């Protein structure tokens, strides 16, 4: 179904946000286009840091990389999440695989005008590799993981798949 080389940033984000969401996404269920929050995030992305070009690494597409090899990601939320940090790690890992020594990830939060810097350490590299393994484990599961508690799914575009009874 999916190989390690095919794991992209969205897979990592969903792994940290909700494994059921990841499992559904891997099976082609993709209702994001109907989500107002997803549309808002796309608008923030399109209007922030417009002088920088996105970097397409195949399965992974990062917002931009600076001359000192820091990965930059623009986020629509107001504060960092473990999923944001994991995506940054993943992009550094992908760059490392093609011979670019990424220094780390800088996450930009335009709504609050804040940035957070996460160096790409050997520990971060090990975690990025483990995350890919976890995505492959979820992908190979014959049934979907359990849904999150209602208090944890706020704003999820997959709500109809988990809570319609």
UniProtKB/TrEMBL annotation:
Its EC number is 3.1.12.1. Residues 9-163 form the DUF83 domain. Keywords: Exonuclease, Hydrolase, Nuclease. InterPro entries: Dna2/Cas4_DUF83 (IPR022765), PDDEXK-like_dom_sf (IPR011604). One of its GO terms (molecular function) is exonuclease activity. It comes from the Bacteria. This is CRISPR-associated exonuclease Cas4. It comes from Actinomadura livida.
